[in-house]
Amino acid sequence: MAGPLPVGEPAPDDGLLPGSAAEGAADRAFGVYVHVPFCRVRCGYCDFNTYTAEELRGVRRTDYAGQAIEEIEASARVLEVSGVPSRETATVFFGGGTPTMLPADDLVAMLDAVRRTHGLAPGAEITTEANPDSVDAAYLAKLREGGFTRVSFGMQSAVPHVLATLERTHDPANVPRVVRWAREARLDVSLDLIYGTPGESLGDWERSLETVIAEAPDHVSAYALIVEEGTKLARQIRRGEVGTVSDDLQADMYELAEERLSAAGYSWYEVSNWADDAAHRSRHNLGYWRGDDWWGVGPGAHSHVGGVRWWNVKHPAAYAQRIASGVSPAAGREVLDAGARETERVLLRSRIAEGIPVATLTVDGRREVAGLIADGLVDAKAALAGELVLTVRGRLLADAVVRRITDA
After folding, report:
1. Are 92 and 127 in contact (CB under 8 A)?
2. CB 367 within 8 A of CB 405
3. Domain match, 78 and 135 both
4. Tens digit of each residue's pLDDT (9 = 90 or more) over 251-297
5. Where is the Radical SAM core domain (predicted)?
6. Which domain holds residue 350?
7. Of 15, 294, 321, 394, whose Cβ has the fewest other Cβ atoms within 10 Å?
8. 3: pLDDT confidence band, cut at 50, 70 and 90?
């Protein structure tokens, strides 16, 4: 299970937001994230808020869709009473866990609740994550019929010994099959990879990239493995049962991903994400990086509206109890002041290819731009055009770039 929730102020039982949340809302997109906290087994590296059957303490998966729908319906009331202007939902993302452990009808029912309460914008992007072993052709067709537009398969690697270290149980041979089924259902396809697993060589990573490119997905995500405290993998490394991967090797892996994906026609639009064209960029994830608004549904889900962040109670049993009692499932929240919101804006926007308008930086931050160009961290041509955009080297050192333009 995931680590502790953030430290913040108590969230009110009615879930109402301060007046500041409404300021400028009409200019921000609105999305919904639905967290489905169930997994068949727990992968050794996983730090997400997920639960196997043995960890549910009497909670039934069959009840979950109804509980989430109650929160979705409550979200519309909370936003209205809080004075936040109504906006149609631009994106919906089902993550987890493994959302596709639930019947397709349950996912469609939750999506229908968003459609009924908030409305869906024309051309809304509707995504679910899926384990390659958790769906079949009929399941994917039912999702498409219900309004889903994208599926993101957690492939992670094409190499059996890497999957074994990660304790991923899916058969890599299933990936081409599920991609074909998704195509037949007219769903856009993303394949998600992890690099930097202990024991993974650069050749192993190259094999995974080649396998992905051969499937010609619309979108590719590639995330560096972060070993989180409290996970089984962290304990194995501490006991010396598995090794670690050097920062230099992870950097080589990232550069290889950029090289191979670019050559195959994919363009980066966020540090860990590439798409074959602008239409296939994940609009939901871009909403996070752009500082838009979203409501997170489910145990441990995080939300953000107008500089107000809050997070739900973690365990499905606690979540179910609060929903049944008619009180907000939020466990805590924070209201960001102007300084924190500006720092966060720079931190998030620096990660995307759209970049940051140089004119919006502080005077001291603008003075750093020339040095960042000289150090090969930002694109010189883009900077001269008024946008601060990271180079490949800059993406690897993104946190250092942010420190220089915010702490200058």
Report:
1. yes
2. no
3. yes
4. 999 999 999 999 999 999 999 999 999 999 999 999 999 999 999 99
5. 24-267
6. 337-408
7. 321
8. low
